């Protein structure tokens, strides 16, 4: 199969840090179709050879499973091309069309690795240039809008040029191997299905914690915040996959239909419930791994009076028959105690404890990063002399050990899926808009609440109010149990 892949924003951080390395890994794994061209477009003036040399230098700073050798990169670079392009100029789109029509590739992928405010401009220009044939696909990188209205406007313009089947809204969390194992756990095994409901589950916790700060992205992050950056997309996508009903098939729309039902079933927020069930925080100076780190207000390009949240914890419910009354706790933040992404399913205790001591309920831990695996926490007898006392034990499945071959990265998987036309791991426009619709009352409530985010020390697990949020229901976060 032949393909042409065009990166708008070809010299941007996303392209050289994530997308090009992912394509190189696909090339090295022998998964990238051989008859392909990769074109980077940007405003800089440089030749193909200059761009290849520039990218080769950048690859030295990229965290990849294996550094490319000179010979490997040289073979990969044969697929790389560069064109200068002003995204506001129609004649540049005409020249792009000429380049693409030098040959008629089976598939053309147009990846918008630019700021979202440029999405409508680019799509309108692509439509005017006739670059929207059925064999052309467009990839939209998050964040898709700043609120519901801007997301709807982006989708309106995209739909005026491309069909829904041509639009690939990317959320790289959905490409992680651990998230694929979440789907396999739920729908490839019968073991947990009888337990996957309100009668057996006490609560579900989703944590997406980062130990890093905002780094050099202070200006971008201050316009975004943790709610938009992580909850509206990554955390809600994980919630839908945990809570969705079994789809009729592995077809993309069958899966996305069920995810949309979950989003529509989420308990809506109002001003009163935001104040009660949502905690926002902002990190102050502290220590990570024993080294001092600055507070958010001291980071580069962050205003000294910023009210942007770097931490969010919230409580919600899925209001349907399967999940009625089960609290879902979502939490994300920067400069937390550890880099840790996991889903914890806490089961209800046994109805009657016949053993001495405290009966600790079972739980299933789905580890997303940095480890990738499953832990099933159970109780077992300590030994013959203490047969009436139970001790916690757990079964640990490490996917990196179970599957010793090199794992496919998130962007590698998603880029190959775009080229192949597989939509299963991409977000449909109605999903995306419903997520914004649910999040927007929180943003509106915060705009009226002058108290601002609660401070928390870098290296902690966030403001104490986040612990109180869960304790109010008689539960605790995983690290506090």
Automatic annotation (TrEMBL):
It is an enzyme of class 1 (oxidoreductase). Residues 183-477 form the Glucose-6-phosphate dehydrogenase C-terminal domain. InterPro entries: G6P_DH, G6P_DH_C, G6P_DH_NAD-bd, NAD(P)-bd_dom_sf. It comes from the Bacteria. Substrate binds at residues 172, 176, 210, 229, 334. It catalyses: D-glucose 6-phosphate + NADP(+) = 6-phospho-D-glucono-1,5-lactone + NADPH + H(+). Pathway: Carbohydrate degradation; pentose phosphate pathway; D-ribulose 5-phosphate from D-glucose 6-phosphate (oxidative stage): step 1/3. Its EC number is 1.1.1.49. NADP(+) binds at residues 43, 86-87, 142. Residues 6-181 form the Glucose-6-phosphate dehydrogenase NAD-binding domain. Keywords: Carbohydrate metabolism, Glucose metabolism, NADP, Oxidoreductase. Gene3D superfamilies: Dihydrodipicolinate Reductase, domain 2, NAD(P)-binding Rossmann-like Domain. The active site is at 234 (proton acceptor). Belongs to the glucose-6-phosphate dehydrogenase family. HAMAP family: G6PD. Catalyzes the oxidation of glucose 6-phosphate to 6-phosphogluconolactone. This is Glucose-6-phosphate 1-dehydrogenase. The gene is zwf.
């Amino acid at each position: 199969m032949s393909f042409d892949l065009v990166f708008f924003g070809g010299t941007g951080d996303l392209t050289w840090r994530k997308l090009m390395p992912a394509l190189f890994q696909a090339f090295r794994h022998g998964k990238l179709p051989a008859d392909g061209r990769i074109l980077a477009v940007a405003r800089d003036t440089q030749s193909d050879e200059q761009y290849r040399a520039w990218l080769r230098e950048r690859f030295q700073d990229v965290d990849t499973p294996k550094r490319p050798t000179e010979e490997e990169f040289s073979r990969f670079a044969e697929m790389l091309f560069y064109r200068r392009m002003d995204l506001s100029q129609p004649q540049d789109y005409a020249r792009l069309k000429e380049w693409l029509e030098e040959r008629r590739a089976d598939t053309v992928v147009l990846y918008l690795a630019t700021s979202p405010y440029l999405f409508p401009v680019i799509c309108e220009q692509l439509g005017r240039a006739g670059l929207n044939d059925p064999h052309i696909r467009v990839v939209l990188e998050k964040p898709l809008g700043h609120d519901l209205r801007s997301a709807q406007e982006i989708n309106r313009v995209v739909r005026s040029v491309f069909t829904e089947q041509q639009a690939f809204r990317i959320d790289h969390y959905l490409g992680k191997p651990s998230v694929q194992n979440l789907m396999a756990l739920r729908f490839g095994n019968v073991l947990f299905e009888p337990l996957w409901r309100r009668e057996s589950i006490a609560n579900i916790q989703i944590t997406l914690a980062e130990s890093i700060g905002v780094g050099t992205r202070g200006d971008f992050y201050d316009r975004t915040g943790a709610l938009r950056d992580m909850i509206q997309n990554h955390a809600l996508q994980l919630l839908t996959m945990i809570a969705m009903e079994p789809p009729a098939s592995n077809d993309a729309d069958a899966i996305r239909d069920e995810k949309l039902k979950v989003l529509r079933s989420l308990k809506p927020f109002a001003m009163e419930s935001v104040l009660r069930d949502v905690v926002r925080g902002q990190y102050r100076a502290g220590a990570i791994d024993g080294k001092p780190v600055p507070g958010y207000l001291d980071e580069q390009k962050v205003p000294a009076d910023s009210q942007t949240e770097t931490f969010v914890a919230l409580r919600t419910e899925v209001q349907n028959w399967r999940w009625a009354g089960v609290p879902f706790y979502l939490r994300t933040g920067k400069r937390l105690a550890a880099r840790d992404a996991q889903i914890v399913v806490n089961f209800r205790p046994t109805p009657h404890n016949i053993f001495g001591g405290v009966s600790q309920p079972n739980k299933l831990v789905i580890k997303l990063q940095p480890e990738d695996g499953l832990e099933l926490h159970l109780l077992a007898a300590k030994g013959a002399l203490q047969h009436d006392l139970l001790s916690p034990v757990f079964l640990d499945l490490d996917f990196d050990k179970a599957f010793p071959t090199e794992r496919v990265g998130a962007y590698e998987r998603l880029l190959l899926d775009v080229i192949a036309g597989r939509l299963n791991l991409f977000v449909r426009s109605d999903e995306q808009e419903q997520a914004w619709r649910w999040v927007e009352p929180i943003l509106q409530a915060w705009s009226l609440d002058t108290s601002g985010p609660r401070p928390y020390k870098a290296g902690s697990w966030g403001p104490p109010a986040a612990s109180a949020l869960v304790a109010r229901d008689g539960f605790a976060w995983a690290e506090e149990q």
